[in-house]
Amino acid sequence: MLRIQGLKKSFGNVEVLKGVDLELQKGEILVIVGPSGGGKTTLLRSINYLEKCDAGTIAIDGKYLIRDGVYASKGELKEIRRTIGMVFQGFNLFPHMSVIDNIIEAPIRVFGKNRDEALVEAREILRFLGLTDKENSYPFELSGGQKQRVAIGRALALEPKLMCFDEPTSALDPALTDEVAKVIKSLSVKGMSMLIITHDMEFAKKVADRIVSIDKGVIIDEHMYESGTGE
Amino acid sequence: MNGIIGFLEYFKMLMPQVMDGLLVTLQIFGLTLILSIPLGVIIALGRLSKLKVLNVITGAYILIMRGTPLLLQIVFIFFGLPLIGVTLDRLPAALFAFTLNYGAYFAEIFRAGIRSIDIGQYEGAGVLGLSPRDTFFRIIFPQALKRVLPPVGNEVVTLIKDTALVYILGLDELLKIGKIATNRDATLLPLVIIAIVYLALTYVLSEIMTRFEKKYDYYK
Hints:
The complex is a heterodimer. Chain A is an alpha/beta fold. Chain A is 32% helix and 29% strand. In chain A, α6 (177-189) links the parallel β8 and β9 (193-197). Chain B is mainly α. Chain B has one domain (2-215): MetI-like fold (Orthogonal Bundle).
């Protein structure tokens, strides 16, 4: 589903990713842990084409975002980005748009769906996320957990094959992390792959099929977590 | 001319001229706004562009427009352009100068507004696949607009008073009407009346701007 090989990225003289190799299966929940500055955010941003890498390969669902340091064409990039959903740490919701408008913006503007069709699908997503009554609220009226679910919903509207989460528990009450874990697990059951970065080890254990850690720009070890063992 | 009755009589007598002046003032004011705000947005985009050439050109433009008196700009455009073969009537010349000048001020306001929008908004739009055009017009600009409303309101109020500068071209706007009447009738009353008219205009404009700001209060 996702394959990364020899990925390198420098900011000026500082090499942040020093040859990262990583694979992710369809429907798998992979959690990346590691200390701040270890490169995990950069890795996630690179997969979303928010950072440009210097060398290496990223392939998503068989399509190359970057192959041996060479990026895909503009048109291909657009296609590939559509298959990835991203939930930012700060959510980055559009504050001037209502919850439902946040969700239908991309389906209408990017996929060219008509408004009615997009609304039906968006309401379906809101129901799945338990946000039906927030349809017409604005982001500033929502709690952190609700904002996060809207951000998840907005990404889901693109029907991505891979969902990325940047520190999904950082803005949440500890009591709410179970909720997010539940949402993430139910999505993976549907066949969506999940890539999560966090430094919340408790949460990682709760949600992950597999945990890897990254430090000083390389993947340093892999822990396997069989789902269902409670580990 | 004694007391309040006299004042009202005089006011009535002067009214038609004041209305004519008001019309000219509003014409310059309205057309300048309609033309200079879009110009300001375009110049602001030039300032923010990644293209160095555009930065330099729009930067120089803003420097010149904000760095020289509007009065001089009006004079140069009306009396100077004919020297290179471009002759404009008085009203178009005034409008041209006002639009160029206010476009520069609006550009700086819009630039600040656009710059103030968090990078996360661009990234959020980017991962959704929105085009740069949609990102700007659907996501960034509407939010910038809300933030710039107070300084835009400031400019709007300044503009209504700046329109008096077109007296230099002999256009019969409000202030000139007042001055003529003051000289002719040897009284300050016309200027008092004109001041009241400006004040009323400013009041109305401030109210309109407040409405706009309230309209954008639906989100934070």
